[in-house]
Design a protein that fits this description.
The structure is a homodimer. By secondary structure, chain A is α+β, with helices and mostly antiparallel strands. Chain A folds into two domains: 98 residues, Glutaredoxin; 107 residues, Glutathione S-transferase Yfyf (Class Pi), Chain A, domain 2, CATH 1.20.1050. The first copy, chain A, is built from eight helices and four strands, in the order βαβαββαααααα. In chain A, strands 2-1-3-4 form a four-stranded mixed beta sheet, covered by helices on one side. In chain A, strand 3 and strand 4 form a beta hairpin. Chain A is globular. The two termini of chain A are 24 Å apart. At the A-B interface, strand 4, helix 3, helix 4 and helix 5 of A face strand 4, helix 3, helix 4 and helix 5 of B.
C-alpha cells in the first residue's frame, strides 16, 4: 500500500447520483493542490466495517499517515491545510481573515444552503410518490429560494465568494449547488448557475469529475 | 466601544426559540475558554444593514480586531483557535489528529445531524397546520432516527465523542441536539439525552444560557 493519502467511497451508486457523490469534493481539492491520492471502493454499504470508519455509513472517509477522518468538509479542510497553502494551488488564504472567510463560506454551504436544498431534493426524488409531494413542493422551494436570493445578492458580480479568489468555500458551495440542476432550480438563478459553471470549468474539477465517473464504467457490485 | 470580541444576535425571538438561538453556541465557547465578550442586539431583522454582515439575515455574526465572520461553526472555531488552545479551557486538542477529529464532529453535527433534525422541527412546528404534517411525520422521523441510532452507537459509553475530552465537536453536537426535547424525540434516545444533559451541566454552558435568556427579560422591540 502506498503512502499517499486515501479516500474511500462507493463503488456503485444509482444513475442519478453519479457525478454528485461527495467523494467528488475531496477529489477536487486534491486536484486543486496537485496532490496525488488513492481511492478505495466500498462494495457493501452501512456494514459494521463501514460504520467503524464512518459512523453514519456515508462516504467519503479519509486517511493519511497522520489522521483518519470523515465528513467531506473536514476532509477538504485537511487537504487545504496540508497541501494547499501557498502557490497556485492555494485553497486557504494565508492571512487570518481570508482563511476564516473561506471556512465561513464552507460552513455556509453545508449548514445554511444545503439543508433547504436537501428539502427540495428529498421532496422531488425520495418523496415523489407520496401524496403530499406536489402540494409541498412550493413550501420546500420557498425555504430554498430565500437562501438562493440572498446568496445571489452577496455574490453580486464577483467570480467567487470573496474577492481574493477561489477557496474551499467556493469548492464546497459549487458542489452543494450542483444537484439543483436536476430539479431545474438553477434555471431561476442565472447568477448562481454561472457561478457553478465557472467552478466546473476549472481543470481541477474536470479531472476530479472524470476520475469520479470512471469508477462507474466498471462498477463494483454492491 | 471596547476592544473585546463582539457577537451580534436578536434582541427578541418567539418564546419557543428562547434558549435555542445560535448565539448560545458562541457564548458557550467564550465561557469555556474564559474570554470576555460584548453582545450587540438587532432590533430589525433581515434589513440591508443586517444582510451586509450576515447575507442570509441570520444570527449570530462576530467580529474581533482582526476579522468579521458569520456562521456559528466558523465563529466557534475562531474562538477555539484564538483563545482555546492549551490549559483548562482547551476546545481543540493540540495534536493534528485530535484537532481534526474535533472539527470533523462539529461538521457532523452541522451537516449530518442537523439537516434531518430540521426536517422534523419544520414538519412539527412550521408545517404543523399543513394537510400533510401528520402523515409526513414518520417519514421525517425515519431520516433523523437513523442518524441518531448511528450517533448513539458511536458515542457508546463515552462521556464525549472522543476519548480525549470535550471539544468544539461536543459543543456543537449538544447544541444541535437540544431542540429535539421540544418534539420529545430525545425520549427515544436515552444515551443521547444523557449526553446532552452532561453538556448542559458544564458551568460554562450554564453561564452562557443564563446570559442568553437574560436578553429576553428586557427584550428589544422588533
Amino acid at each position: 500500500m502506498s503512502n499517499l493519502p486515501r479516500i474511500t467511497t462507493f463503488g456503485w451508486v444509482p444513475e442519478f447520483a453519479r457525478g454528485l457523490v461527495r467523494d467528488l469534493r475531496a477529489r477536487w481539492a486534491f486536484e486543486e493542490v496537485g496532490q496525488a491520492y488513492e481511492v478505495d471502493l466500498i462494495r457493501d454499504a452501512k456494514t459494521d466495517e463501514h460504520k467503524a470508519h464512518q459512523p453514519f455509513g456515508q462516504v467519503p472517509f479519509y486517511r493519511d499517515e497522520e489522521i483518519e477522518i470523515f465528513e467531506s468538509g473536514a476532509i477538504v479542510l485537511r487537504i487545504a491545510e496540508r497541501w494547499g497553502s501557498g502557490g497556485a494551488g492555494k485553497l486557504l488564504p494565508d492571512d487570518a481573515a481570508g482563511r476564516m472567510h473561506a471556512i465561513q463560506w464552507m460552513l455556509a454551504a453545508l449548514n445554511s444552503v444545503e439543508p433547504p436544498l436537501l428539502g427540495v431534493i428529498i421532496n422531488d426524488r425520495f418523496e415523489a410518490d407520496k401524496p403530499w409531494a406536489d402540494e409541498r413542493r412550493p413550501v420546500a422551494r420557498a425555504y430554498l429560494d430565500a437562501r438562493l436570493r440572498d446568496l445571489t445578492a452577496r455574490l453580486g458580480d464577483k467570480d467567487w465568494l470573496e474577492r481574493d479568489g477561489f477557496t474551499i468555500g467556493d469548492l464546497m458551495m459549487v458542489t452543494v449547488l450542483r444537484p439543483l440542476r436536476i430539479p431545474r432550480v438553477l434555471d431561476d438563478f442565472p447568477t448562481l448557475a454561472a457561478y457553478v459553471a465557472r467552478g466546473e470549468a476549472r481543470p481541477a474539477f474536470q479531472k476530479a469529475l472524470a476520475d469520479h465517473l470512471a469508477v462507474f464504467e466498471h462498477p463494483v457490485a454492491a
